[in-house]
């Protein structure tokens, strides 16, 4: 039988080795639920901090309030942290109702961690080898692709910092042995036995049956997840190579809307197209499963006069002027109306549409700003009066942008169209109309 001090020394040594990459982090925050796994991680780190120079330690407990019994958990966690001398913080969250309570609680928890992490800090989570096997099985049953079957990554970006799982290669049995030998107490969540939840069913029924027949099942699942993670890494590298061919700057450098040139994507096989788009759209929106990509095919194959749109969970993909454009948030809301610009020497804030300013000598007369309604004409130097729609066609302005371009009027006369060379200034060059479009945080997250 392994001696208690041997378990502690072995775990501490492996933990310190895995954390070596993060020794210069601004701080280590421990995701502390009070359960077995996070209790062991907290105890190990507090012990290591007594003998090694580590980043500042602190613990974060997310209180969901989903069970009456959970009301006592923050107090238990606070007492444990006081004993170990680790600063402690409780964050209360509201779990949005939905089809999956498990997923909703997880989303709320990681959103809280995302908010609390400061630049350069690392959130240390205590998921272990059994959790990884469980995740792989759960995602396999849901028909996940390579990325999903890679299960939980050991590390990833989270908010302004990083998430790291230093116990992912350790079996739960070893963590429980450590906790018992060290005399630790932890919270037993009664909901973990509720097999109406899919993960609990796998944990309490399926995995024990599999390991009874194949004792190495959990280790094998983890090995498969590692192989799939490596395969996903190769797919990511391929996506970056393919996207590099499509990331040709758009003609409007002031337009802060993510976009790609379509032709290089069309030259790829269907599988490589989907791989590249998953990589590009992943930070922008939740993606459909493999059975619901018909929207991409329709957008890609639309005729040159078409205006196809692929509607996704968090926004829309538009096709215009040989490019695809990602629109979400404020870019999906129409702008309308007019504004008098009595103080044209000052920037004009456009509701839901950024800011407008005149650079140079301010033109005389009562100025006001409109948006396109149709039928507008503009005097163009050396060309005379021209229909605005035709001018926008000549400039190759995407359809989604045309209704947002601010138009400067003096009385009934259209003087300029913001940001379009040749249309945004007076003929003598005394002034120019400059528009700063709205920043769409959802498109740039």
UniProtKB/TrEMBL annotation:
Its EC number is 6.3.4.19. The keyword ATP-binding applies. Residues 367-435 form the Lysidine-tRNA(Ile) synthetase C-terminal domain. Keywords: ATP-binding, Cytoplasm, Ligase, Nucleotide-binding, tRNA processing. GO terms for cellular component: cytoplasm. It comes from the Bacteria. One of its GO terms (molecular function) is ATP binding. Gene3D superfamilies: 1.20.59.20, HUPs (3.40.50.620). It is found in: Cytoplasm. SMART domains: TilS_C. InterPro entries: Lysidine-tRNA-synth_C, Rossmann-like_a/b/a_fold, TilS/TtcA_N, tRNA_Ile_lys_synt, tRNA_Ile_lys_synt_N, tRNA_Ile_lys_synt_subst-bd. It catalyses: cytidine(34) in tRNA(Ile2) + L-lysine + ATP = lysidine(34) in tRNA(Ile2) + AMP + diphosphate + H(+). ATP binds at residues 33-38. CDD domains: TilS_N. GO terms for biological process: tRNA modification. The N-terminal region contains the highly conserved SGGXDS motif, predicted to be a P-loop motif involved in ATP binding. Ligates lysine onto the cytidine present at position 34 of the AUA codon-specific tRNA(Ile) that contains the anticodon CAU, in an ATP-dependent manner. Cytidine is converted to lysidine, thus changing the amino acid specificity of the tRNA from methionine to isoleucine. Belongs to the tRNA(Ile)-lysidine synthase family. This is tRNA(Ile)-lysidine synthase.
């Amino acid at each position: 039988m392994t001696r208690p001090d041997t378990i502690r020394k072995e775990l501490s040594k492996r933990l310190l080795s895995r954390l070596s990459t993060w020794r210069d982090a601004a701080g280590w925050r421990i995701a502390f639920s009070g359960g077995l796994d996070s209790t062991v991680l907290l105890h190990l780190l507090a012990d290591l901090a007594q003998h090694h120079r580590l980043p500042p330690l602190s613990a974060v407990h997310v209180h969901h309030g989903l069970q009456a019994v959970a009301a006592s958990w923050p107090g238990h966690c606070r007492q444990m942290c006081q004993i170990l001398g680790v600063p402690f913080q409780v964050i209360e969250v509201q779990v949005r109702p939905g089809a999956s309570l498990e997923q909703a609680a997880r989303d709320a928890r990681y959103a809280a961690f995302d908010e609390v992490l400061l630049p350069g800090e690392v959130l240390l989570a205590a998921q272990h080898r059994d959790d990884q096997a469980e995740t792989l099985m759960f995602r396999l049953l849901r028909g996940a692709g390579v990325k999903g079957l890679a299960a939980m990554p050991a590390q990833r970006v989270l908010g302004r910092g990083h998430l790291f799982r230093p116990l992912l290669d350790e079996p739960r049995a070893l963590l429980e042995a450590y906790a018992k030998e060290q005399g630790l107490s932890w919270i037993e969540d009664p909901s973990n036995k509720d097999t109406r939840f899919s993960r609990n069913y796998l944990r309490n029924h399926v995995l024990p049956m599999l390991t009874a027949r194949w004792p190495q099942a959990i280790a094998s699942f983890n090995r498969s997840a590692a192989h799939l993670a490596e395969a996903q890494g190769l797919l990511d590298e391929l996506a970056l190579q393919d996207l590099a061919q499509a990331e040709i700057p758009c003609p409007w450098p002031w337009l802060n809307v993510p976009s790609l040139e379509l032709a290089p994507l069309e030259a790829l096989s269907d599988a490589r197209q989907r791989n590249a788009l998953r990589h590009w759209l992943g930070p922008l929106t939740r993606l459909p499963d493999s059975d619901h990509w018909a929207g991409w095919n329709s957008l890609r194959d639309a005729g040159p006069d078409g205006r196809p749109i692929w509607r996704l969970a968090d926004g829309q993909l538009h096709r215009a002027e040989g490019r695809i454009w990602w629109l979400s948030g404020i870019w999906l809301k129409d702008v309308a109306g007019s504004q008098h610009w009595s103080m044209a020497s000052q920037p004009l804030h456009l509701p839901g549409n950024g800011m407008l300013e005149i650079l140079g000598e301010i033109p005389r007369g009562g100025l006001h700003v409109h948006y396109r309604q149709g039928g507008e004409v503009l005097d163009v130097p050396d060309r005379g009066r021209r229909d605005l729609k035709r001018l926008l066609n000549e400039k190759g302005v995407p359809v989604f942008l045309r209704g947002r371009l601010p138009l400067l009027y003096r009385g009934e006369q259209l003087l300029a169209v913001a940001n379009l060379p040749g249309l945004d200034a007076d003929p003598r060059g005394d002034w120019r109309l400059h528009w700063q479009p709205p920043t769409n945080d959802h498109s740039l997250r």
